[in-house]
Amino acid sequence: MTTSEGGTTGAKPKGIDPRGPRFGATITAVLLLVTVFLGLVFVPGSGATLAERVSNPAFVLLVVITLLFAWGAFAGIQRHPYGQIFRVLVRPRLDAPAHLEDPRPPTFAQLIGFIVSTVGVVLGILGVPFGLVVAAAFAFIAAFLNSVFGYCLGCQIYLLLVRAGVFRGGASSLAVE
Amino acid sequence: MDPIGALAVVLALVAVGTVCGVLWRWRVGRAREVNSGKVITEEQIGQRFAEKVTLVQFSTEYCTYCPATRSVLSQLAAEYQGVKHVEIDVTNDQSLANAFKVLQTPTTLLVLSSGQIRARFGGPPRRAELAETLAQLIDSAH
How many angstroms separate the CA of residue A144 from the nearest CA in chain B? Predict the structure, then answer.
């Protein structure tokens, strides 16, 4: 069975188990919640140097989360490390999924996560008070809704963009008009 | 902030997320009665209407719950005489989606043979509510 590359060949990509992204969202939600907690406990003082801000535990964790989002956004959700963990450890213990999901919307959702957490990282570098915490909190809400309620905010945004004509829908590749 | 305070904020965040999620779940898939007299045409759905009620499902290519909804609707259609299920892909049809204010997919319309829309379900419809609404419409369609 061959897997087509996410959107580049122009063919509709192979469906994925919809529980995979939700599993990833669960891990992400927990990490983001820890980020918020750390960001509230270890607040860089107003006179903190750049080095102090960058070595802040919440900042470091958010950078890691940002990199993970980037991995999912640019390599595709199927190649995300959580996706691999799901495939190897979790999926074999579950029944086959009732339906498969198009991987493009959850991949785009990773991009949304990447953007929001990058904003948090930038705010952390700039030393905007609680900027990092607020960004992480927003990202947490989205990850939490996905993990617990199966609601994918990024997927909804993707759909709206397709309908707005920003992405071409149908069997064609993911091209920005 | 001290750890207890931080923990309180974290719990409040989880509570906010939970409220949002529960609200969304509660609203999804419920029947909305349509009294506006809005009409859909056979031309728009590309098929003849059923004798009694047509279950019109708007889907898009990326819609996670559309296949499951398709199963539910076609099963229901098979159970009742004079009911059929029609699925329309609006991925590339902005005008049709706008005409019927399709903000999410699946969106299901219950349509009489006159083309009149009598109910709509946003998101995956709750089966019991859908079956009940359908039964009521079939009765009143006589």
Answer: 7
| Residue B115, CA atoms < 13 Å, CB-side half-sphere | 12
Cβ within 8 Å, pair A145-B91: no
Q: How does pLDDT run across A119-161, given as a tens digit for each residue?
A: 999 999 999 989 999 999 999 999 999 999 999 999 888 877 8
Q: Which residue of B has its CA nearest to A97?
A: B68
What are A42's two structure tokens? 């270890």
- Partners of B90 on chain A (C-beta within 8 Å) are 163
User: Nearest to residue A66, comparing CAs of A116, A10, A9?
Assistant: A116
Query: DSSP assignment of chain B, as one string?
Result: --HHHHHHHHHHHHHHHHHHHHHHHHHTT-EEE--S--B--HHHHTSPPPSSEEEEEEE-TT-TTHHHHHHHHHHHHHHSTTEEEEEEE-SS-HHHHHHTT--SSSEEEEEETTSBEEEEEESSPPHHHHHHHHHHHHHHT-
Q: What is the ipTM of this complex?
A: 0.82
How many angstroms separate the Cα of A56 from the Cα of each of A35, A48, A61, A91, A136? Answer: 10, 10, 9, 36, 14
Amino acid letter for position A175: A
Residue A109 has what DSSP assignment? H
A102 touches chain B (CB under 8 A): yes
**Could you tell me the maximum CA-CA distance found in chain A, to the nearest angstrom?**
58
Quick check: B86 and B117 in contact, CB under 8 A?
A: no
Length of chain A, in residues: 177
Give the whole-angstrom CA distance, residue A32 versus residue B13: 11
Alpha helices in chain A (DSSP H): 19-41, 50-54, 57-75, 81-85, 104-126, 131-149, 153-163
With tokens 């590339």, the residue in question is B92
Contacts of A148 in chain B (CB under 8 A): 17-18, 21
pLDDT in tens, B55-90: 999 998 777 788 889 999 999 999 998 999 999 998
